[in-house]
Amino acid sequence: MIGSRKLSSVFSWEVIFVAITTLIMAVFYILEVHFIGLVELKAWDLHFRERGPVTPSGMTAFVTIDEESVNREGRWPWPRRRMARLIEAVDRHGARVIGLDMGFFEPDLKLRQQAVLDVRDRLRGNPAGSPDILALLEDAAREEDDDAILAGTIKRLSAPLVLGHFFYDSASRYLPPPPPEDVFERDVCPIVHVREEPEKDRLFEAAGLETNISVVRDATRHSGSFNVKTDPDGAVRWMPLVFRYEGRIFPSLALRMLTVSLPELPLIVKLDAAGVEDIRLGPVSIPTNNQGELLLNFYGPGYTFPHYSASALLHGEVPADCLANRLVVIGNTTMGLYDMRPTAFDQVFPGVELHCTVLENVLQENFLRRSKRSVLLWDLGALAGLAVIFLVLQSCLHGVLIVVSVAALLASYVFLTHYAFLGPGVWLNHLYPPMNLAIAYLGTSVHRYLEEEREKNKIRKTFSLYVHGSVMDEMLAHPERLKLGGEKRELSVLFSDIRGFTTLSEQYSPEKLVPQLNDYLTRMTQVVFDHHGTLDKYIGDAIMAIFGAPWPQEDHPDRACGTAIDMVNTLRSLKRTWEEEGLPVLDIGIGINTGTMMVGNMGSDRRFDYTVIGDNVNLASRLESLTKVYGVAIVVSESTWNLVRGNFIGRELDVVRVKGRLHAVAIYEIMGRKGDGIPAEALDVYHEGLHLYRRGEWAKALELFIRMEEWLPADRPSTLYQARCRGLLNRPPEGEWSHVTVLDRK
Which of 50, 76, 434, 626 has a CA-to-CA distance to 513 between 20 and 30 Å? Predict the structure, then answer.
């Protein structure tokens, strides 16, 4: 985890990174990248499968010319006479409006009818072709004219019938001849409000129109297109409701059936430069995209809507009122015609049922919305919203929590997309917002990992030679607890120095003394590390160590004093080895002070060290030099002693005013750990003597300091006070006497 010192700059980088990825994703979204679009379509289909089938209202149905019908009635295409019987049967069963998902684009000439017409044509202009004979031939041909029979049946229907026609796009190799003008007058949308002419390619711009033959077309006033639109993956999700051809707007089959079924509701198509702005059927606004396509709300797999076999209707095998007051579409579902389409529910969904789906969606106002205008704001809002939420989480969570939060955020967005589908019926983009979130998370995680590694390397580089391995492990595991910049903290600092090293260096050759010094420094440094101290630096033969930084330690005074005792004990072991090897014996003095000091990386831009500075650091150095004056190994300040007296044995040495400080400080000797066997009676005698000395009762004090030799022979502090008492007794001070010792030397 990155330390707080770095968090601001890291987070700023993350904001920039997430902003860039969000912008790139927004551009990809607007450009509609093909591969991502295909995956998006499949993700949308999952909502229908998760929701499951829904029972339609029953206001629509379809009659299918299925495999059973072909087997019973004959192969497709059927004669128009049989189609007339089927349409008549649908009307007889109570259909409210009949729509044909097919067209009658060519005359239906049978061989017998064609033979009669051929005879008629040959007799014309021939003496044998009297008017009576020609009239009889005309009547015979008319009786065999299935197109006329179909047209007559359509005219006699009680329910209005909507014919189907087909538009060709510009990519079609075959284009039929232009239709008669009456097609434009009759089949265009009744009312079109054009606020601004749509730009090219905004609507389905038809290049050709395949319409019904005139005799059939003249039998009804209604016609609509049965064109079906497929997505890039071949599936059907949209159905076009309007088409533009020769500057006019034509309705689809389903839209025309709706206007015929609800004649009191005007159809209004509003256009603008972007395409279709609105399609309104009376008070109902039908949400489409700019191309005038309706996003289908499927009710289930194929044959979910009420449906009946054509042969069953022809033979009266269905209830008489099975189609009562329903909008009925007649279509072909035989496999040979390839009018079976893949949808969200089914890979073989009847094309005729697509028109039923449109009818049901509009009649029940059961719409799904994917308008480019509004959904663009939804999707881009979700894209940016997830990014902002992620940045907020990233700024306050770390580790497993951010992983769990991102996973929860992704799951929440998936739930949101499904709720939008089930509730308001909005198609929210499934991929771009989560992809952006995933990329943002991965990118920032990689960046944070690299920053953490960089931080760890910096820590490792800075402290690998100065702290114990276990401390290094803790520092690397929790670098956020480190503050490498300058800060004021309460720490303990230790100085140790070899006494008389300058004299030794003059007496012994470097070849002999340097290995001994290296051995000494190695052993002493290890003691510092064993107590989890930080080696600040070597100052010649002196060692400076810090406790409580960079890794916080509440017991840093105890660690410092324990280090000092173990350094003295380690030196005893080294002395025996040196004596055996004939090497000079070294003695050390150690000074320790606890207080507030400045700690951190200090130096120039090119070179710096992690160290401590301040008056309390200087005092520790002065205390180390006092070990020579008082003849002891370890001297600590009063602030240190007050914090460790419960764990160590010690005694007050003096109250001194060292050079560079205005105020006097009490100094103490650390003699050992609790339980080390130092007689308590001896310390009581010593402290009583020190008390008498400060009261000016030097004779009594002298007696007690002499008694100290019974317990601690050659005790240097006692010997020092014996000399002071004798001197004061021999030459009593004039005026007021102060027991504070003033030391002018460093």
Answer: 626
